[in-house]
Amino acid sequence: MQDLIAWKTSSDRMPLIIDGARQTGKTWLMKEFGRRHFKNCAYINLENNAVMKQVFENYTDTPQVIRALAAYSHEEIVAGETLVVLDEVQDIPAALSSLKYFYENSPEYHVVAAGSLLGIKFPKTPAPYPVGKINKLRLYPLSFTEFLSAVGEEQLVASLAAGEFALLDAFSSRLKRLLSDYYFIGGMPQVVSTFLKTSDYHRAREVQLQIIDDFENDIAKHLSDAQASHAHTLWQAVPIQLGKEQGKRFVFSELKEGGRARDFKNALQWLLDAKLLTKVRRISKPGIPLKSYASDQLFELFLLDVGLYGAMTELDIESVLAMSPLFEDAKGPLSEQFVCQQLIAELGVTPYYWASENSSGQLDFVVSDKGAIYPIEVKAAENLKSKSLRAFSERYDLHGFRFSLAGLKDQEWMTNIPLYAVSQLFSLH
């Protein structure tokens, strides 16, 4: 919402596109933005919309398009007072192309568009993408900080933002319980909303399973039978491979006998474009920019959301909340999924990982910000042995960071940060 307000008041504002996976709350966010910060909102859903398809494919004159949008939405559209919302814009490529005309001919209007499969469906059409004529925002599932706000823990959020670790340490038991809740519930808005209304973990799980089913239906709907089969196999395999004690690399040969990367290339790209998966690539060494040292062939895959990871692996709530010994093996992958998600959504960075060529040494994540490199190790418990992190830090003369259930602890070569405070990584350097 803060980003949207900044967009509204920007002097060089362009039409805005919000993208992200299905069911991350794009529609609600746009409508709520319109309700709070504009006199009125003209909302138009373009999915299977024959009327709007005809309008956008036959008219490029902005005033005519505005009149058509006003007639269809039954809302007067006044520049500076009305938010125009074009939802599921990928269903009418000409509507996406039309954003350049709003920018060039009628920049006084506030136009925001959203779509879940923009990177997938649009390139298959002849309509040009409005490069350089739009602003973009990516919407993710709720981060842990947003989850804390949702469940009414605003004071803890304020303490986190202020870096009041002595105070937070006094509330560590509560924060660990909330972290366990987040591990199970995750950040998909409908799941969080259901939990807030019912306080029922099992109802939340039912919603997660429905979301997973919807995602899998999308796969079947938008891909050929052969590609859908590959995508479904790959999608189901990600949480399984995350949980294995193996080198940090996604292994295609384990998907099926004789499986090869090229067999799954298109299916993988579809899942990445749909924002259902995140690719974390291996770097050969920590240099700036990290992308220059990243491999296209060696990578790890993570899911969109930690709660969906638990649902896909049938992780039961009793084990999570009780932190039972049987849960120990699951905590590692859950914590890595959690940290990956927070690095992207909270800190806005691209995570990579590092693995030694000739030994078992490896680091869970390496990220960079403002020219600084952050080697990161993730510990699911309070076991504070960090051989790989220390060896890496000494080899490349870098300060290391470890996320664990232990409290904040600053050593000469490494800083331990509580898992619930991933958002504070850059403020502690």
Short description:
With 429 residues, this protein is α/β, with parallel strands linked by helices. The protein is 46% helix and 17% strand. It has an eight-stranded mixed sheet, sandwiched between helices. The protein has a five-stranded parallel sheet with strand order 2-3-4-1-5, sandwiched between helices.
Q: What is this structure's SSE topology?
A:
Layout: H1 2-9, E1 16-19, H2 26-37, E2 40-45, H3 50-58, H4 62-73, E3 82-87, H5 93-97, H6 99-105, E4 110-115, H7 118-121, E5 135-138, H8 144-150, H9 154-162, H10 165-170, H11 172-185, H12 189-198, H13 201-222, H14 225-242, H15 261-273, E6 277-283, E7 294-303, H16 306-312, H17 317-322, H18 328-345, E8 352-355, E9 362-369, E10 372-378, H19 387-396, E11 400-404, E12 409-410, E13 414-418
Parallel strand pairs: 1-4, 1-5, 2-3, 3-4, 6-8, 10-11, 11-13
Antiparallel strand pairs: 6-7, 8-9, 9-10, 12-13
**So how many helices?**
19
Question: Uncertain runs with pLDDT below 50, 5 residues or more?
Answer: none
**Percentage of helical residues?**
40-55%
Structural class: alpha/beta
Question: What is the gyration radius calculated from CA atoms?
Answer: 23 Å
Largest sheet: 8 strands, mixed
N-to-C terminal Cα separation, in Å?
A: 28 Å
Oligomer: single chain
Average residue pLDDT: 90
Number of strands: 13
Q: What is the general shape?
A: globular
Beta strand %: 15-25%
Report on the structure:
With 429 residues, the chain is of the alpha/beta class. It has 2 domains: 2-138, Rossmann fold, CATH 3.40.50.300; 168-428, no CATH class. Helices cover 46% and strands 17% of the residues. It contains 19 helices and 13 strands. The strands form 2 sheets. It has an 8-stranded mixed beta sheet with strand order 7-6-8-9-10-11-13-12, with helices on both faces. Strand 12 and strand 13 (414-418) form a beta hairpin. The chain is globular, with a radius of gyration of 23 Å. The mean pLDDT is 90.
